[in-house]
Design goal:
single chain; about 120 residues; alpha+beta; 4 helices; globular; OB fold (Dihydrolipoamide Acetyltransferase, E2P)
Length: about 120
């Protein structure tokens, strides 16, 4: 499993990358492999402010639908248009082109509470 060391992770298998006052959020390589072929991503929360741990959308795969949880609280300012057009990007490139949402960070210290790559790798075994 690919677990980049420059990202932080949640127990719910989301990753988070900080750029300026924003967090980019997606699901991990482990999560996409467990879900299988992703066919649709729904993010009805663009424009809303959510707390860390809140559901920001759903990920629909061939076999199941899974909630997507926000690792850091803030305002959902953007959904990745490329993923909206082609949800298979999440399977192909979960840490790059397959990011899901951009969040205006409410509380930067929440980033420090997320798992390091090493801790996440232990979690998934």
């Amino acid at each position: 499993m690919n677990v980049p060391s420059n990202l932080k992770y949640s127990n719910d298998h989301e990753w988070c990358r900080i750029e300026g006052g924003f967090a980019y959020v997606g699901i991990t390589d482990f999560a996409q492999s467990q879900l299988g072929d992703i066919v649709f991503i729904d993010v009805p929360t663009v424009g809303e402010t959510l707390a860390a741990g809140d559901v920001f959308g759903t990920i629909e795969a061939v076999k199941t639908v899974s909630d997507a949880f926000l690792p850091m609280g803030g305002e959902i300012v953007e959904m990745n248009e490329a993923v909206d057009a082609d949800s298979s990007l999440v399977n192909k490139d979960p840490y790059g082109e397959g990011w899901l949402v951009k969040v205006k960070i409410a509380e930067p210290s929440e980033y420090d509470a997320l798992l390091t790559a090493e801790q996440y790798a232990e979690l998934i075994g």
